[in-house]
Amino acid sequence: MKVVSESFVVETPQRQEFFDVTDRVITMVGASGLKDGIAHVYTPHTSCCVFIQEESEDVTYYGTQLILQDTLNVFAKIVPPARNEGQYLHPGPIHIKNAAELRGEHPSWGLNTDGHIISSIMGRSETIPVHDGAPVLGEFGRVYFGDLDLVRARTRSVFMTLIGQ
What we know:
Elements: E1 2-12, E2 17-20, H1 22-32, E3 37-42, E4 48-54, H2 66-78, H3 93-103, H4 113-122, E5 125-131, E6 134-135, E7 141-147, E8 154-164
Antiparallel strand pairs: 1-8, 2-7, 3-5, 3-8, 4-7, 5-6
């Protein structure tokens, strides 16, 4: 059995946005030499997600595919964007104090509870079968990384572990 681990970073804007990482996944699988097994794609960030969706082709003015914007629109209805302190219980005063003192964070950066909730619903990983040296995604399937944090631009990490032969 072969195990290969890789990672890459995604620079994200100060808005909720999805990034198509399918080509990176395909390239990493191809470079690994893995013929059959699984590719596990994961992000450790608790306000981010990894998921499979079809490619919409049409995009918004920001370049967001329409199916992905529809996803954000639905989530905004069930998990309203955090706009002010007290809207959600988290983050509480202890968290804000520790974030400022230990990590130098501005209090407004704590207004990302909606991103954390959406991330927990969507999930932070996907496991994709690998067959004949390629990820099995179906005819329209694409792998997306999403940053659901509205408060600041970030550098995010995505990890991939390939297991098989």
